[in-house]
Design goal:
Blueprint (H helix, E strand, L loop, with lengths): L9 H10 L16 E16 L4 E13 L15 E5 L8 E3 L2 E4 L7 E5 L3 E13 L11 E10 L7 E5 L3 H5 L11 E14 L5 E13 L2 H20 L9 H20 L12 H27 L10 H14 L17 H20 L9 H65 L1
Parallel strand pairs: 1-9
Antiparallel strand pairs: 1-2, 2-7, 3-6, 4-8, 5-7, 6-7, 8-11, 10-11
Protein name: 5-hydroxytryptamine receptor 3A
GO molecular function, one term: extracellular ligand-gated monoatomic ion channel activity
Family: Belongs to the ligand-gated ion channel (TC 1.A.9) family. 5-hydroxytryptamine receptor (TC 1.A.9.2) subfamily. HTR3A sub-subfamily.
Length: 443
């Protein structure tokens, strides 16, 4: 052996000293009754993915664990005051502490070394990409707060062999966000810890340390891209009620809004999280908004059908006149509009205006030219018959016009009533959801 090669090889001598006769397959205690206490610690570095459909959380954590190996002890004075040394992980005993919620092997870097102090304290620090099962509740989306657990325990050794404790106090662990990447969709609120001893068969007892990672979604993106467009469309639907009820433009306007909202739902359907056990409240909100648009369109169609003037339209029933035209305007402070008597409401009004004068003249003529039918020339008799027919026609048209004006007034009052009911429903629905989402956001 070349003596110059290891002339100052203190670490080589120390490694040879520690590995001499070392059995890495045996728990490193001199008294087998002594339990190996493993101190663990967890720091969340990043939230990589939250899969609501498969109920899987992917995080990147910094995991630390330390324990005392009674066989890895030396006197620093014998080894040039070396107080700690790094050794290959494969050459020392390592506790079999795993995460119960593991569902997939993450892409974690391999850290092949551990630190060992002269007192036998072994420090095993490593980053881990953790893919774990988590019960995700998406009802409050996008204002949801998720709580996922990471349970560390020895898979085989009982508490008599391996016990688990925290490396830091629970208070420091709870509020530690020093390494968290705080620029993603999710915000880390805190990390809670809970120690428990459990037994499967009431014979062997195991120690476990459970970390509760509490995260909250940042809702700004979803508010701007999901909620605001829906609110704008609902506001436009309310504005559409100010169009005249007897015009067909209101129906076209509301049909356009309904089609636009349908396209909007198709676009945002991929953005909403989906699970087999529940639907987010925002999905219910979109469905209710669609239902409100359909109800608004139905109300508009009924009102337009009601105020549309027809020649064979029956008179307004007396009970409808009493309830709608007399009681409702007083109870709900609805002002009657006299503009419905304008002749522009029907295409025959101009004919009625042109013939009204002839009607009056025909009536006078009929009164003057009816002394006796025997002496009336045939031509004058035909004229009298024509004038009488015109007068009867105009009287019938006047009655139809009066009936149509009454129906138009009924339609106007019902339109105002239904609009107010619709507006109250929309406002109450919006306030309820806004209050819920505000409470969830603050909480």
């Amino acid at each position: 052996i070349n003596p110059g090669r290891f002339a100052n090889a203190t670490l080589v001598r120390l490694a040879d000293f520690l590995s001499a006769g070392y059995k890495k397959g045996v728990r490193p205690v001199k008294d087998w009754r002594t339990s190996t206490i493993v101190a663990i610690d967890l720091m969340v570095y990043s939230i990589l993915n939250v899969d609501e459909k498969n109920q899987v959380l992917t995080t990147y954590v910094w995991y630390r664990q330390s324990w005392t190996d009674e066989f890895l002890v030396w006197n620093p004075e014998d080894f040039d005051e070396v107080k700690q040394v790094s050794l290959p992980t494969a050459n020392v005993w390592v506790p079999d502490i795993l995460i119960n919620e593991f569902v997939d092997v993450g892409k974690s870097p391999d850290i092949p070394y551990v630190y060992v102090t002269h007192e036998g304290l072994v420090q095993n620090y490593k980053p881990i990409q953790v893919v774990t099962a988590c019960t995700l509740n998406i009802y409050n989306f996008p204002f949801d707060v998720q709580k996922c657990s990471l349970t560390f325990q020895s898979w085989l050794h009982t508490i008599d062999d391996i016990n688990i404790t925290l490396m830091r106090s629970p208070e420091k662990l709870r509020d530690d966000k020093s390494v968290f990447m705080n620029q993603g969709e999710w915000e880390l609120l805190h990390i809670l810890s809970n120690y428990k001893i459990f037994s499967v068969d009431n014979d062997d007892y195991y120690a476990e340390m459970k970390f509760h990672v509490v995260i909250r979604r940042r809702p700004l993106f979803y508010t701007v891209n999901l909620l605001l467009p829906s609110v704008f469309l609902m506001v436009m639907d309310i504005v559409g009620f100010f169009l005249p009820p007897d015009s067909g433009e209101r129906v076209s306007f509301k049909i356009t809004l309904l089609l636009g909202y349908s396209v909007f739902l198709i676009i945002v359907s991929d953005t909403l999280p989906a699970t087999a056990i529940g639907t987010p409240l925002i999905g219910v909100y979109f469905v209710v908004c669609m239902a409100l648009l359909v109800i608004s369109l139905t109300e508009t169609v009924l009102i337009v059908r009601l105020v549309h003037k027809q020649d064979l339209q029956p008179p307004v029933p007396h009970w409808v006149k009493y309830l709608v035209l007399e009681r409702a305007p007083v109870l709900f402070c609805i002002h009657k509009k006299h503009r419905f008597s304008q002749c522009s409401l029907h295409h025959t009004c101009e004919i009625g205006q042109r013939l009204s004068q002839q009607d009056r003249e025909g009536g006078m003529l009929g009164l003057r030219l009816a002394p006796s039918r025997d002496n009336t020339p045939p031509v004058m008799d035909n004229i009298l018959q024509e004038v009488t027919a015109i007068r009867q026609f105009l009287e019938k048209r006047d009655r139809c016009r009066e009936i149509a004006k009454e129906w138009l007034q009924v339609g106007y009052v019902l339109d105002v009533l239904l609009f107010r009911v619709y507006l109250v429903a929309v406002i109450a629905y919006s306030i309820t959801l806004g209050t819920l989402w505000s409470v969830w956001q603050v909480a």
